[in-house]
């Protein structure tokens, strides 16, 4: 709650923004309240849909890719698995009544500590809400529950010749994808979640169920509430239904790869392609360090692809046979103008899948590789995004800084929209150096008119950098929105920005 006396510098009692120091600490229910809440939740969803084993509580606090770890006392009291919107609403009403924090959970693949239960509370896992509710083939949209994975969704849409465009890491579910506004390798053609969510149903902190809009692509009907909840990381409401844009699956899609000696040449190639107005379905960059890792980890696989260790661009290109042929030639010419070599084109489903699977699983490949070469190696995955023209400079400076600190890295990028991912690899005694280079990478992105995260989100991990990017007044405005919708500060506390001026949480890395 706000302190009783709250005046700005000109003596007005109320302001549009909320400075963290104008707040008192949130007041949550005690253990007796927690027990009452759990008993009431059990009556709503049944004992079989409540999990409280130590393994379940840990899984719903952390994952193997998340560098930002929960502290030992940061576990939910229980994991609740509702099956309907109404059950989610009832759980929220109960938690609101007893002032128990709520942590929405959908997929659990995020890597910035998004679902760490910093105030304990109830984890609301929507994985049982995994249905496709309606496919509007003629309107190119689909209505889904939040627990369905994007890969499973696309498998079902294949029969219609349609697809959902966003493709983050394997295992991601729609609810979490909406909450983090993720994207993936297809973003340069199909956009991020912000561009692909038409409408949402959301359960607010007090259990109120709202619908943000109807299905038309075009609407001028007041506040863009859909956009408000996309990227809100579970801090404003629980996503319980989403209406999503669909796209016609590209005709005759092929995958092309091209090597480059210098990463600057690869990045300039992409800029030149876009400046010529050439449409590509996806374009990805993997640097020579990443390719060395992939080559060493796959070279002994019988019948597998033999990868070069040079910088690599991967393209998805599609269209009618005539248009595709023209696109391939134009892309090839621009690659050659920038000293690209070793063009390969994959047309079979098996070969295309093998190449793109290598890109989609590079994080785990890199982590396994790191453990081979550094005893007890640690790996810190992070991302930033900058204007595409700044990408070569930011990549070069980031890699140089990491190596100057005696650490290793691999770099991949959704180069079509300026989003780069660096995996910082280091021995346990170099944690301080890793923290330094990650911080400098984020600051470097901001200095180049970029953002602290292109698609991973803020969570706990990037929270302290947000003011540097957006300014204090903008972050304080976000806090005001949070307090308007969640005045008790129950929903996913402590994510994106601080909600407690007296917070004393110690980061666990």
TrEMBL record:
Q: Give the InterPro entries listed for this entry.
A: FAD-bd_oxidored_4_C, FAD-bd_PCMH, FAD-bd_PCMH-like_sf, FAD-bd_PCMH_sub2, FAD-linked_Oxase-like_C, Oxid_FAD_bind_N, Vanillyl_alc_oxidase_C-sub2
- Which coenzymes or cofactors are required? FAD
Query: Hydrolase: is it a keyword of this entry?
Result: no
- Biological process GO annotation list? lactate catabolic process
Ordered alphabetically, the record's keywords are: FAD, Flavoprotein, Mitochondrion, Oxidoreductase, Transit peptide
Principal localization reads mitochondrion
Q: Which GO terms describe its cellular component?
A: mitochondrion
Reaction catalysed by this enzyme: (R)-lactate + 2 Fe(III)-[cytochrome c] = 2 Fe(II)-[cytochrome c] + pyruvate + 2 H(+)
Tell me, what is one Gene Ontology molecular-function annotation carried by this entry? D-lactate dehydrogenase (cytochrome) activity
Q: Does the keyword Transmembrane apply?
A: no
The record's top EC class is oxidoreductase
Q: Gene3D superfamilies recorded for this chain?
A: 3.30.465.10, 3.30.70.2740, Vanillyl-alcohol Oxidase, Chain A, domain 4
User: Pfam families per the record?
Assistant: FAD-oxidase_C, FAD_binding_4
Report the EC number(s), separated by commas if there are several: 1.1.2.4
FAD-binding PCMH-type domain location, by residue?
Answer: 72-249
Its annotated compartments are:
Mitochondrion
Q: Which family is this protein grouped under?
A: Belongs to the FAD-binding oxidoreductase/transferase type 4 family.
Q: What is this protein called?
A: D-lactate dehydrogenase (cytochrome)
Write down the species.
Answer: Candida boidinii (Yeast)
């Amino acid at each position: 709650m706000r302190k009783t006396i709250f005046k700005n510098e000109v003596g007005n009692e109320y302001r549009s923004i909320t400075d963290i120091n104008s707040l008192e600490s949130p007041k949550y229910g005690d253990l007796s309240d927690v027990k009452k809440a759990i008993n009431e939740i059990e009556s709503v969803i049944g004992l079989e849909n409540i999990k409280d084993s130590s393994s379940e509580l840990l899984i719903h606090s952390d994952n193997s890719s998340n560098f930002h770890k929960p502290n030992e006392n940061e576990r939910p009291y229980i994991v609740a698995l509702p099956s309907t919107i109404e059950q989610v609403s009832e759980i929220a009403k109960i938690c609101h009544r007893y002032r128990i924090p709520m942590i929405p959970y959908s997929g659990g693949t995020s890597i910035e500590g998004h679902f760490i239960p910093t105030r304990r509370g109830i984890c609301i896992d929507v994985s049982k809400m995994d249905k496709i509710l309606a496919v509007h083939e003629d309107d190119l949209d689909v209505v889904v529950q939040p627990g369905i994975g994007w890969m499973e969704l696309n498998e079902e849409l294949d029969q219609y010749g349609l697809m959902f465009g966003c493709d983050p890491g394997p295992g991601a579910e729609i609810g979490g994808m909406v909450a983090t506004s993720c994207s993936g390798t297809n973003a340069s053609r199909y956009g991020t979640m912000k561009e692909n969510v038409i409408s949402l149903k959301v359960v607010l902190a007090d259990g109120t169920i709202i619908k943000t809009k109807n299905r038309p692509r075009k609407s001028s009907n007041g506040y863009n509430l859909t956009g408000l909840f996309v990227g809100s990381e579970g801090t404003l409401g629980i996503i319980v239904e989403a209406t999503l844009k669909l796209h016609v699956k590209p005709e005759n899609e092929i995958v092309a790869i091209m090597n480059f000696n210098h990463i600057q040449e690869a990045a300039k190639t992409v800029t030149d392609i876009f400046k010529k107005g050439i449409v590509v379905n996806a374009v990805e960059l993997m640097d020579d360090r990443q390719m060395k890792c992939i080559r060493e980890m796959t070279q002994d696989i019988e019948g597998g692809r033999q990868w070069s260790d040079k910088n690599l661009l991967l393209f998805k290109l599609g269209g009618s046979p005539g248009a595709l042929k023209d696109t391939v030639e134009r892309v090839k010419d621009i690659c050659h103008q920038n000293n690209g070599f070793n063009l390969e084109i994959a047309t079979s489903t098996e070969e295309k899948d093998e190449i793109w699977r290598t890109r989609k699983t590079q994080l785990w490949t890199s982590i396994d590789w790191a453990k081979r070469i550094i005893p007890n190696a640690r790996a810190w995955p992070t991302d930033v995004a900058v204007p595409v023209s700044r990408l070569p400079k930011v990549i070069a400076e980031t890699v140089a800084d990491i190596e100057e600190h005696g650490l290793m890295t691999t770099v991949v990028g959704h180069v079509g929209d300026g989003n780069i991912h660096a995996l910082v690899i280091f021995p346990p005694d170099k944690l301080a150096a890793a923290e330094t280079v990650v911080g400098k990478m984020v600051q470097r992105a901001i200095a180049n008119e970029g953002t602290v995260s292109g698609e991973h989100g803020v969570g706990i991990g990037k929270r302290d950098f947000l003011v540097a990017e957006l300014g204090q007044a903008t972050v304080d405005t976000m806090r005001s929105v949070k307090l308007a919708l969640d005045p008790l500060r129950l929903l996913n506390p402590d994510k994106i920005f601080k909600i407690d001026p007296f917070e004393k949480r110690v980061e666990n890395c």
